[in-house]
Write a structure and sequence with these properties.
By secondary structure, the chain is mainly beta. It is built from 1 helix and 14 strands, in the order αββββββββββββββ. Strand 11 and strand 12 form a beta hairpin.
Length: 334
């Protein structure tokens, strides 16, 4: 039996962890699996045959007041027939009394090594620059504390992300460094808690397999993240399958996220530990130039705040399609 004191300690650690994560710009969830790699990797701006608009809404723990929620909108595409692409992202992330909102602008350049659409061979570089505003709303705090001002405090941060992508026929790999700059620090309270290193390293890789002439294709992939300041890391193992239709396709998949870092707690018989684990099924469809997808993340741990998970809806529009599609199973490019 877990004591009330232990529950409070665990929840405190969870809230502190959520608070620190909320200070790192756009959160890293599984929305990239809904044809939205650009949210993670700036080098994906303009890589596709079409310009892409994606809108996402994410909500956790329905029925709980001030539960974490996230909204994003992104657009990216090529600059005419040039090898350059541009993009923009705006987002709003709410987590209890903490919130952040921001915007990024992106420039990417794509170097083609292939001479035609039969053998895709492309190296891309991308750079994003963004402004983020962090807020801490202390107006609703009920208990008196000397360090609490009882006002809405805010702080702004400028940072950049840099990365590259490589596509070779049905294979792809991405590497990105987020929050490259080491700023003076983000300080939104009188306690002097400062985060001056928000650097995160991301690596993604995958391949799409299909039999010749088949309407089915299969995409195993992984994504690894490492946070420089806290030395935390996690990995996503993903698997998606696609079925092609004359007017688009339908897809479904599943993602398993596992943290390499654990937390200890008392379960009544001794000290146990657990590592963060998320299971995320994904379903979606593309009809002509429209896309709709749904993801649900379930946290499969012994000690959790709530059994409910994350619900997310993604709406997408492809427009301005110009170039001929490549002869490959490469959904993010075609």
């Amino acid at each position: 039996m877990i004591s009330f004191k232990n529950i409070v300690s665990i929840l405190t650690l969870v809230l502190i962890s959520q608070s620190i994560n909320s200070q790192e710009g756009l959160p890293i969830y599984s929305d990239y699996l809904t044809d939205n790699f650009y949210l993670l990797h700036p080098s994906m701006a303009g890589v596709s045959n079409c310009n892409k608009l994606r809108v996402t809404g994410r909500q956790q723990w329905f029925g709980n007041e001030d539960a974490p929620s996230l909204q994003t909108m992104s657009v990216n595409g090529r600059i005419g027939e040039s090898p350059s692409g541009v993009g923009a992202i705006v987002f709003n992330d709410q987590n209890g009394y903490h919130s952040q909102s921001g915007a990024y602008l992106t420039y990417a350049h794509h170097i083609m090594f292939s001479r035609n659409t039969i053998d895709l061979n492309m190296l891309s570089f991308g750079l994003s620059a963004g402004m983020i505003q962090y807020k801490l709303d202390e107006t609703a705090f009920l208990e008196f504390d000397p360090i609490i001002a009882g006002i809405e405090q805010s702080s702004s941060d400028f940072n950049v992300d840099f990365g590259f992508s490589y596509h070779f026929i049905d294979f792809y790999a991405h590497a990105t460094v987020k929050n490259v700059l080491k700023n003076e620090g983000i300080n939104i309270n009188e306690q002097g808690v400062v985060y001056n290193n928000l650097r995160t390293y991301l690596f993604s890789a995958g391949n799409v397999f299909s039999r010749f002439g088949s309407d089915w294709s299969y995409e195993p992939s992984l994504m690894y993240a490492y946070k420089d300041a806290t030395k935390e890391s996690f990995i996503d193992f993903n698997f998606k399958t696609y079925y092609d239709l004359d007017i688009g396709n339908v897809f479904a998949g599943i993602s398993y996220r596992r943290s390499f870092d654990g937390a200890q707690f008392t379960d009544g018989s001794g000290i146990s530990s657990q590592k963060l684990q998320y299971i995320t099924p994904v379903v979606g469809a593309e009809y002509n130039n429209f896309m709709l997808a749904y993801t649900y993340s379930y946290q499969s741990n012994s000690v959790v705040f709530n059994n409910g998970g994350f619900h997310q809806i993604t709406l997408g529009l492809n427009f301005g399609c110009k170039r001929e599609k490549y002869d490959c199973n490469c959904p993010s490019v075609n």
